[in-house]
Amino acid sequence: MLSLKFFTIFVFLLSLSSSLFTFTSAADPTYVSHDCSDKNFTRNSTYQSNMNNLLSSFPPNASRSDGFYKATEGQDPNKVYGLFQCRGDVTTTTCQDCVDFASTDATQRCPDQKGNIIWYDECLLHYSDSSIIYTSGLNNGPLMPDETEVTVEPNRFQQLLLELMHEAATQAANDPKRFATRKGNSTTSQPLYGLVQCTQDLSNTDCSRCLQESIANLWSTRIGGRS
Fold this sequence. Notes:
Elements lengths: L3 H8 L3 E3 L13 E6 L9 H12 L10 E6 L6 E7 L5 H18 L6 E5 L2 E6 L15 E2 L8 H20 L5 E7 L5 E7 L6 H13 L8 E2 L1
Antiparallel strand pairs: 1-9, 1-10, 2-5, 3-4, 4-6, 5-6, 7-10, 8-9
Helix pairs in contact: 1-5, 4-5
Pfam family, one: Stress-antifung
Protein name: Gnk2-homologous domain-containing protein
Organism: Acer yangbiense
């Protein structure tokens, strides 16, 4: 079953790492994960037609400067809801490439399902037969911690990590693109980087709440992770 909280926290990408966030251009975006709906549609149905029309409208709108687009297609009971959002620091070209790829990849991974949330490093795409809204208190999404444990001053690392991520969350909640990155130092020679993002349709209050809940679930004893 699709979890709206999972979508909000994970795709809206709350990440930390002991190395710089570097992403190289590639023919295809970097796949992370996806989550198919537990409801199926009938082939060649009105719902499938609406879904295809909605997804085909996404790539032309990926040139928007804010990298975010939300739309619906059709009428109840065959109405389809959808959105995409690109990471706040990618170029318009990278955003377009990711959304174009995701619009096809999503239905290949969930060929008969009414909805899918699919994440890449560069963007996310979500479509569903129900309205896409933020719901606090649901935490069904997986955590993706790095396997490497912090061995040098772990208590100091944990303190600095939480301070860094809370600062980033506050900044993102007050940013029009709901996006922020922060840099700190876990040791004298080891920098620490954090990145957070909410979908732009969230209020600053809901964005802040979502990110704070996600921060609370981080594996703060690992050198990196995603929640």
